[in-house]
Amino acid sequence: MATHNVVTNDILAEQNRFIAEGVKFDRIIADIPSFANRWPGAGGQGKIRDLVSSVIHMSKNCLTDDGTVTVSCTGIAQEKWDDWFASEGNTIFELVPDSTWTMFRPYLRQQENNKHYWGRRDDWTFVRTYRKIGSSYTINRGAWTGENENRHPNSFKAFPMPQTMNDVDVSAFRAPYHKGLYESKEMQKWLRKYELTYEEGVSSQNGLPIVTVVGSGAHFTDGYVVQFSNNPQDWYHIPKRICQYGSDDKIKFNNDVVNAFFDNKNKGLRALQGGNHKHVMLSAWMIETHTQPGDHVLDPFCGFGGTGAACKVLGRDFTGVEYNNTRANIAGAAGTDLNGVV
Predict the structure, then answer these.
(1) Higher local confidence (pLDDT), 161 or 80
(2) N or C: which end of the chain has fewer CB within 10 A?
(3) pTM above 0.85, yes or no
(4) Could you tell me if 25 and 298 are in contact, meaning their C-beta atoms sit under 8 angstroms apart?
(5) What CA–CA distances, in Å, run from 74 to 70, 71, 171, 176?
(6) Distances 224 to 29, 106, 118, 206, 221 between C-alpha atoms, Å
(7) What is the four-CA torsion angle of 152, 102, 170, 281, rounded to 10 degrees?
């Protein structure tokens, strides 16, 4: 059984412990907080830079010889990361070829003509993987066998994919929240264009209007599109809802696993399906393609534990660090919920 360990702490403290104890990881997968004060533990620009430095120090000191670090960061964090790589990192690490990707997703669907409103996410916005110079490690896109189209009710099979990026309505995330989307009312304009009714609510975070209810002709929809280039042939369609996937002779997320996520007694797994935290299938894609069976994976900002759950199912050892106690407890519970299932 894959090990599953979640630590509630600041990654700056854990970094020192990992280095002192000589802990080694095969993969570090980090969505580094990039906007000051948006999440607990990311207070101020200086703290953001500290978090980036922590991932850098662990990459240099806690990776195996063939280890890799996969990072997503924008804004302040990306500036800090790029400064390091330009000055020092390129003597130690190199970018893994063909490993850079970004992501967008469908937000709303007009049912009558199957039109979708596409936009970018604020997390996993710009992702790159680095290896130590001299390593030949590459990501394996072929390891992802994809969802079983016949088993998933909201399959991408019925989605009309954007033909170009001109069809993606929201081009970028804007700090500190989806401010551009709200202030310019881009989603509302799309709904009006297709003569769809909607109601506006007010975000408790920033007081800006958001679409909370849509009329009977539309619904909010799920899923992710990972793109390695602007060529749609280079895109991977990943469901958001927990579902079976894998070839028929080896279904990675089988019935027992899927049912565990919907079992009311599994509080950790149930919590992974709410709000912005439905990242288990995206994490599964990342674990399949960016790691190998038996790897020890570190997620230094593990949140509700989607990466940890994917590791547990797919046979990777997992260590997660999370500053927020509530989230760390959920991430730990999700791993416990899967005991006896996988």
Answers:
(1) 80
(2) N
(3) yes
(4) yes
(5) 14, 10, 14, 12
(6) 18, 7, 10, 25, 10
(7) 20
pLDDT digits (tens, 9 = 90+) for 223-236: 888 989 888 788 88
* 8 Å CB contact between 276 and 184: no
Where b means 16+ CB within 10 Å and e means fewer, 265-297 reads: ebebbbbbbeeebbbbbbbbbbbbbbbeeebbb
pLDDT one-digit tens code per residue, 283-342: 999 999 999 999 999 999 999 999 999 999 999 999 999 999 999 999 999 999 999 898
The identity of residue 177, as a single letter, is Y
Domains, the chain, in order of start with CATH, read 4-337 (3.40.50.150)
Residue 152 banded pLDDT, cuts 50, 70, 90: low
Q: Which of 52-66, 175-189, 208-222 has the lowest mean pLDDT?
A: 175-189
| C-beta neighbour count of 123 within 10 angstroms | 18
Residues 129-143: tens digit of each pLDDT: 999 999 999 999 989
Distance of CA 315 to the CA centre of its chain: 19
More confident residue, 63 or 112: 63
